[in-house]
């Protein structure tokens, strides 16, 4: 494993001073999976006070958990003292954290075998729970007795499914059984943590790995209904809003309810809601229909909705594909579908004798309506003629 210079320097300094120091957890897992780790955590036998005495710049970032951040220039490295945890009376956080001097015990408190490995250039890979083998076989397995581990901390259930969904692994049968048995406890985990894990799982390459959890009703407290048909999720675009909309469509869940319970951010919620609305409309078969849809939804949302529709239903796929083709043709040709694309402006209308005020906007919208039906009439003269004709008709009626 090639460690970044700052991590390497950190481990070497610890070892020179007589302590143990290893890269641990996510970075070792990512390295074995062939992925680039996004950050590196260091675990050590030195206490936070001993770490602080060893390095010139140390920030106490999580002393209650034995964590300090060592700064190498701009580069931060999180260093955590080996620790054991006791008593999880709230089903989420340990009541007590105890600093220890034993690496194996530190690895034993970690959630999954693939996350319970350490590495240092001097010691090589330290893997007391068979994490490397599980990486090779694509298995998610709890460290120790899965029922006990999930009872201690319910969030681990979601983490297990999140790693399955991002890495494409499967839960080991015992881990799966315990996870589903304890899944009702997920309702007591904070919305923020559930949402963070769930969104990472949903936007992974294999979101359908969530199926057993969804099917068991484990996510019902979060507004996601139990069904067994998540397979199509894997084929949709991995954007948050798309996956969320697809999840709602596949499970028959209500986005509004889900959004409230999961406290979704406004932007993701609005994007998913827009998509769901668009997906519920008939697929345009004529160009004028397509221009009207472009006017309402815009090209980005519309193409996303058409793709989603095709991805989720093989019977809709041909119509959705030819509609998408039609949309590209219209855009290439430059057919007008927005007010700004009209060949006249409000200023032109005022110059042509219309009284400034709300009437101008109304007239522009009427012109856009005509142009959506027939883009050929999007010429200044033609449109002004149309305005005059309407004006004359109105005064004749008066
Ligand atoms: P990523 O950073 O990609 O989300 P990660 O595994 O590094 O994955 P972190 O939340 O950064 O996740 O946690 C670092 C390490 O701490 C994990 O690899 C795991 O060993 C341990 N860990 C994290 N959360 C838990 C938990 N709820 N229970 C037990 N151990 C945990
Ligand atoms: Mg991490």
Concise summary:
It contains 19 helices and 11 strands. By secondary structure, the protein is an alpha+beta fold.
Which hetero compounds are present in the coordinates? adenosine-5'-triphosphate, magnesium ion
Bin the strand percentage. Answer: 5-15%
Rg calc: 29 Å
**Low-confidence runs of at least 5 consecutive residues:** none
CATH architect. name of the domain at 1-137: 2-Layer Sandwich
CATH class of the domain at 1-137: Alpha Beta
What is the CATH third-level topology name of the domain at 1-137?
A: Beta Polymerase, domain 2
| Residues in helices, as a percent range | 40-55%
- By secondary-structure content and strand pairing, the structural class works out as alpha+beta
Q: If helices are DSSP runs of H or I spanning 4 or more residues, what is the number of helices?
A: 19
Average of the residue pLDDT scores: 95
Q: Give the distance, in angstroms, between the N- and C-terminal Cα atoms.
A: 85 Å
Shape: elongated
Tell me the CATH superfamily of the domain at 1-137.
Beta Polymerase, domain 2
> How many DSSP E strands?
11
How are the strands of the largest sheet arranged? 3-4-5-2-1-8-9
Order of helices and strands: HEHEHEEEEEHEEHEHHEHHHHHHHHHHHH
For the sheet with most strands, the description reads: 7 strands, mixed
InterPro entries: Bact_CCA-adding_enz_type3_sf, NT_sf, PolA_pol_head_dom, PolyA_RNA-bd
Family: Belongs to the tRNA nucleotidyltransferase/poly(A) polymerase family.
Domain tRNA nucleotidyltransferase/poly(A) polymerase RNA and SrmB- binding: 168-217
Domain Poly A polymerase head: 22-141
């Amino acid at each position: 494993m090639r460690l970044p210079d700052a991590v390497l320097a950190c481990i070497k300094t610890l070892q020179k001073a007589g302590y143990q120091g290893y890269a641990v957890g996510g970075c070792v897992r990512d390295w074995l999976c062939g992925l680039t780790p996004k950050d590196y955590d260091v675990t050590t036998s030195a206490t936070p006070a001993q770490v602080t005495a060893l390095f010139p710049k140390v920030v106490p970032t999580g002393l209650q958990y034995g964590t300090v951040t060592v700064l190498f220039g701009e580069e931060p490295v999180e260093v955590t003292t080996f620790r054991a945890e006791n008593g999880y009376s709230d089903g989420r956080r340990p009541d007590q954290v105890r600093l220890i001097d034993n690496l194996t015990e530190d690895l034993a408190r970690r959630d999954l075998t693939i996350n319970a490995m350490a590495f240092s250039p001097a010691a090589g890979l330290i893997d007391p729970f068979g994490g490397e083998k599980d990486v090779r076989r694509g298995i998610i397995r709890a460290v120790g007795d899965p029922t006990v581990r999930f009872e201690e901390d319910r969030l681990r259930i979601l983490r297990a499914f999140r790693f399955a969904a991002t890495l494409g692994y499967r839960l080991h049968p015992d881990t799966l059984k315990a996870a589903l048995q304890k899944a009702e406890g997920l309702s007591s985990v904070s919305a923020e943590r559930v949402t963070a894990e769930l969104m990472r799982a949903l936007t992974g390459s294999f979101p359908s790995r969530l199926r057993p959890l969804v099917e068991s009703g484990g996510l019902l407290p979060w507004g996601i209904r139990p069904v067994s048909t998540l397979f199509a999720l894997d084929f949709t675009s991995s954007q948050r809003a798309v996956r969320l909309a697809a999840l709602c469509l596949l499970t028959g869940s209500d986005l509004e309810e889900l959004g409230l319970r999961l406290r979704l951010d406004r932007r993701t919620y609005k994007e998913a809601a827009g998509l769901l609305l668009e997906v519920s409309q008939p697929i345009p078969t004529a160009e004028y229909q397509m221009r009207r849809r472009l006017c309402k939804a815009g090209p980005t949302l519309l193409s996303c909705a058409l793709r989603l529709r095709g991805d989720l239903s093989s019977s809709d796929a041909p119509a959705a594909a030819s509609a998408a083709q039609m949309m590209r043709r219209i855009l290439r040709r430059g057919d007008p579908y927005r007010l700004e694309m009209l060949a006249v402006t409000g200023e032109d209308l005022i110059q042509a004798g219309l009284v400034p005020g709300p009437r101008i906007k109304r007239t522009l919208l009427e012109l856009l309506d005509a142009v959506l039906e027939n883009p050929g009439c999007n010429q200044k003269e033609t449109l002004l003629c149309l305005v005059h004709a309407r004006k004359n008709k109105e005064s004749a009626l008066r």
